[in-house]
Amino acid sequence: MTERPVEALTQAEAREELARLAEALTAANVAYHTLDAPRISDAEYDALKVRNLAIEARFPTLKRADSPSEQVGGGLAEGFGKVAHSVRMLSLENAFADTEVREFDDRVRKYLGIPSSIAYTAEPKIDGLSLSLRYEDGVLVMAATRGDGEIGENVTENARTISDIPARLTGAPAVLEVRGEVHMAHSDFAALNDRQTATGERPFANPRNAAAGSLRQLDPAITARRPLRFFAYAWGAVSEPLATTQLDAIARLSVLGFRTNPLTVLCDGPDQMLAHYRAIEAQRATLGYDIDGVVYKVNALDLQARLGLRSTTPRWALAHKFPAELAWTRLEAIDIQVGRTGALSPVARLTPVTVGGVVVSNATLHNEDYIAGRDAKGLPIRGGKDIRVGDWVQVYRAGDVIPKIADVDLVRRPDGAQPFRFPEICPQCHSPALREEGDAVRRCSGGLICPAQAMERLKHFVSRGAFDIEGLGAKQIELFYNDPILPVKMPADIFTLAARDASNPLQKLKNRDGFGDRSVSNLFAAIEARRQIRLDRLIFALGIRHVGEVASGLLARHYGTWATFEAGVTNATPGSAEWDDLTAIDGVGTVLATSLVEAFQNPAERAAIDALVAHLTVEPVANRGPVDSPLAGKTVVFTGTLERMTRAEAKARAEALGAKVAGSVSAKTDLLVAGPGAGSKAKEAARLGVMTIDEDAWLALVGVA
């Protein structure tokens, strides 16, 4: 497992860790949102997501298709009808440190090109269950849980039993979707658990679980007996604006009859935001309901509209979470795991300890420098204290897929404890484990002959963001990889499983332990269904170092078809037209391009890719954007200084209209937008005859007054 401080991660380590995070957070989402039975605390869940987002922010080209940042909530519980949200219910970007709040403000102002301070609202983040209420002509017609953000559960009849939710509104827009949080007061929760115990029923673990379980009862009469409350704090679809600011819109919801949080205030910049955070944190224990942080939102709704959305989070909001917990325990052993790209990652095996209600037995040790007490630049961390087997270590649960070690108690260090010697030989295949200059990770040089790398690549291949073959997960990959009869050593082997099983009448898969007629039939059908795969998912599934989900999407939209992509990458050598075309893709740098080209020019890698593609029908990927947009399918390059729109906003607007944004001018460039200070790109565009326009013409083209 590749675990390091985010600022010290290499791209290979980041990619490995993102895979682990995706698996851990998907399981946590299902447990939390679908089963109402979380396996980890909210603080740890949020910490994992923060870690994932931090890595994606630093390595945007590595973002996975199954990334937690592409997921909102979890799956749907059985027994409820499905509701498609007309406006997606998004999650929020999280922060734990004051510096992250200031960075959020800096990002917002930089994106908008506003040097002065911006007003934000700050409100308690309620720890409950998100709910969307749809009113038409003032009448409640639908209530739905968040679900996965796109599709929720229809809990209308249950919602009608909550006293804080009005059945009718006076003076509301014709269509109004009110979003908020269903929760339970501490006193009501205690009384409910007393009743549960008295009747011999199992008590609830915490108010959030009680609220979620109560709202999702198939019998509304049970929900009606539960003391649920509702805070309104947002909206979805509206037929007319509620107000021009966030604060005024919340006030309007209050006037309409919704309970809103009285601790919501207006703040002028980060200093006031942080001051209100401290004030709310000080009141946390006396509020009478659970909160786990403070939410900041840009107050002006027109600025919110300009900032827009990422895949699952708005750019204009941030959840500042309260700190996670610490605990001391003994380090029993240090294990070395080998990842898909050969990275050797140390993992601490701990004497189990409870941290914030969760039993922890593993922790990340990141890399050999971290164990030795230094950072990527060789500077001391933890005061220069190294980590040794037998040490008493402080475990911190905010920020990693598994907790990390924050400190070492040297006073309790056992006599004879030896500095840990990081292996220079791969523990799996015994190939040399090399550490390249400038890289903090040591990597197995065995490549495909290393069973750990081969197996991890296969696990990545069948992961949600890649081929997502139902019934063929990590455990099944391990089984088939070591199977003497139906081995799966490379991706192409997956698509010959059914044929190989059919040709072996004596030891059919359906007759083995853990399988049966139905499960085998379902597995083979799932594999067959994946013979047709979209280009971006195929590129991502190949598991090429540095090529994450975002980069795969960029590549797929640029090349369009597998044939074009394959030819372009195969022929891309530095200095060639194909190389220039590849590296001109905005978001594809030299490191990524080199890794991609090397994979396609490596005989063993190429043979595996060709063998796989022979079994597939690869669907082309069209560039996103409206068909009637004047920019759809066009390649746009920006240069110079934009004065009325930041570069980030201009890029986002171009991509939303279906354009490809490139980083350099080439013969394939359709349009150059040149602001003051345009230099070599403008000259190259003139030489190539590329249309060049100024910022005013660009704004007119994209419909900005």
Task: Give a description of the structure.
By secondary structure, the protein is an alpha+beta fold. The protein folds into six domains: 6-70, Helix Hairpins (Orthogonal Bundle); 82-321, DNA ligase/mRNA capping enzyme (D-amino Acid Aminotransferase, Chain A, domain 1); 326-412, OB fold (Dihydrolipoamide Acetyltransferase, E2P), CATH 2.40.50; 450-489 and 496-530, 5' to 3' exonuclease, C-terminal subdomain (DNA polymerase, domain 1, Orthogonal Bundle), CATH 1.10.150.20; 534-619, Orthogonal Bundle (DNA polymerase, domain 1); 635-701, Rossmann fold (3-Layer(aba) Sandwich), CATH 3.40.50. It is 35% helix and 19% strand. It is built from 25 helices and 24 strands. It has a five-stranded mixed β-sheet with strand order 2-11-10-3-9, with helices on both faces. A five-stranded antiparallel β-sheet has the order 14-13-12-15-16, with no helix packed on it. Strands 5-4-7-8 form a four-stranded antiparallel β-sheet. A hairpin with a 2-residue loop joins strand 4 (129-136) and strand 5 (139-145). Helix 1 (11-34) runs antiparallel to helix 2 (42-58), helix 12 crosses helix 13 and helix 17 (535-541) packs across helix 18 (549-559). It starts with 10 loop residues before the first helix and ends with a helix.
